Amino acid sequence: MVQTIPTSWLWDVIGFWYVGFIFWILLAASIVTFIIGVVKNSWKAILISVIIFLPNVLAIITMDFEYIMYLLLVWFIIQILMLRKIYRNNVELLI
């Protein structure tokens, strides 16, 4: 007889590692690149910050997290608004 590992256990382990490690690493990388983008007035760095944070946004929306985690969506909105503002300022300088 061959025993198989229940798939629910596997998803629990994957979820633990995603939330416990990868989620916070992506959040930290997003914050660092966002700060660099604001200091250097670089819309490209802020765009990278938004792209880095996108898997976290998808995880927050699709997974059952605590309600406090939904506050991180505010960070995503702030990133997008700053990207829009800095991009518009840089485009006006080019014209």
Q: In words, what does this structure look like?
A:
- There is one protein chain.
- The chain has one domain.
- The mean pLDDT is 86.
- It is mostly helical and 95 residues long.
- The chain has three helices and no strands.
- It is elongated and about 65 Å long.
- The N and C termini lie far apart (72 Å).
- The chain has helices spanning 7-40, 43-62, 72-94.
Short description:
The protein is an all-alpha fold. 81% of the residues lie in helices and 0% in strands. It contains three helices and no strands.
H-E order: HHH
Number of strands: 0
Number of helices: 3
Mean pLDDT comes to 86
Radius of gyration: 18 Å
Helix content: over 70%
* Major beta-sheet overview: none
**Span between N and C termini?**
72 Å
Question: What's the topology here?
Answer:
Elements: H1 7-40, H2 43-62, H3 72-94
Helix pairs in contact: 1-2, 2-3
